[in-house]
Design a protein that fits this description.
By secondary structure, the protein is mainly alpha-helical. The chain has one domain: Ferritin, core subunit, four-helix bundle (Ferritin, Up-down Bundle). Strand 1 and strand 2 form a beta hairpin. The longest helix is centred in the first third of the chain and has 25 residues. The two termini are 29 Å apart.
């Protein structure tokens, strides 16, 4: 099945949406832009991989890399729906696609010249014509996304950035719960993600997340400032 699409573009109703409107708090979004605009072009290649950088902007680029991957995946899912997809599932996955495109575009706009380059996905291991293959991949990406935000949140110094990250991870967790339930009723908070003894979602380090994410990327991402290189 064809998997090469223009995965840098959003859905038809996404093109003109403002990232300020998405953020829901103009002051916080403008603060992100202000910090980004006073910097020079960030993109750095280390051993053939894209370095996310360091500090708060490094964490924002880390999130941007993951949002690029998720947006590309759902753009493909909606463009080439799996066999037997229902109208309800189409609506759910389209909504998720739209959210992920907004997340991706928000970080790109907010980071400005500090944003890492556009990444090229590699979904060769996913059968987009098969429901189980697609939903299992979606669960992996969503669960990884939530664990990534939870695992890197403590590294964020600026309260405005932390507020935005909190708003985004809340949406990612809703996605993860929905995908889990599509795979099996009652799997919205499975024990592989939520620790039943504490009721808290599990977290993952930047090294752990990038090790998995790079399996779905032709353009590898590295984070030497956080002790990870592919």
């Amino acid at each position: 099945m064809k998997t090469e699409l223009d995965l840098t573009k959003g859905g038809a109703n996404m093109a003109r949406r403002s990232f300020l409107r998405y953020a829901g708090t103009g002051a916080a979004a403008i603060a992100v832009m202000g910090a980004a605009s006073c910097k020079k072009d960030h993109t750095v290649i280390v051993d053939g991989a894209v370095d996310i950088g360091n500090g708060d902007l490094g964490i924002l680029n880390y999130a941007y890399a993951l949002e690029q991957l998720e947006a590309a995946f759902y753009l493909q899912v909606v463009a080439t729906p799996y066999s037997g997809i229902s109208a309800a599932e189409t609506a759910y996955l389209t909504d998720i696609r739209d959210h992920e495109v907004l997340h991706r575009d928000f970080f790109k706009a907010a980071l400005g010249t500090n944003a890492i380059q556009s990444l090229t996905p590699d979904f060769s291991t996913i059968n987009f014509g098969d429901r189980t293959s697609v939903l299992n991949a979606a669960k992996l990406l969503e669960d990884t996304g939530v664990q990534a935000y939870d695992g890197a949140g403590y590294l964020i110094k600026d309260a405005n950035y932390l507020l935005i990250a909190g708003k985004i991870v809340s949406v990612e967790a809703r996605h993860a719960a929905l995908i889990g339930n599509l795979l099996g009723i009652g799997n919205y908070a499975s024990t592989d993600q939520v620790d039943p003894s504490t009721g808290l979602n599990k977290a993952a380090s930047i090294a752990e997340v990038l090790s998995g994410a790079n399996k779905f990327l032709k353009t590898k991402v590295t984070a030497p400032s956080y002790n990870y290189q592919p």
